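## retry 2 of 3
previous attempt timed out at serialization; input unchanged, resubmitting
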Amino acid sequence: VQLVESGGGLVQPGGSLRLSCATSGVTFRNYPMSWYREAPGKGRELIASIRESDGTTTYADSVKGRFTMSADNTKKMMYLQMDRVNPEDTAVYYCRYLVYWGQGTQVTVSS
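## retry succeeded, writing output
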């Protein structure tokens, strides 16, 4: 299994960013798939996940209504659409499948 995130960068407050997670060796819809983030000086936080049985997504309160997680079984990709970002969203973002993690992609929200 391999997970590779991309799409991070610098974005202004109120802006948008789309993160991608390219997967290999992953069977979609067998197990939950998730996005986490780790801000400086804080622990790793679960922010979004997709339930394997029906594709239902759940979100942490901190991102609910602003972030949208999706998965494309054909392309073997996971996505995290980030809208109306704020400085508190600055973190390294990781995708996760079972015990496997990507290397992370840095998102910095600053004017």
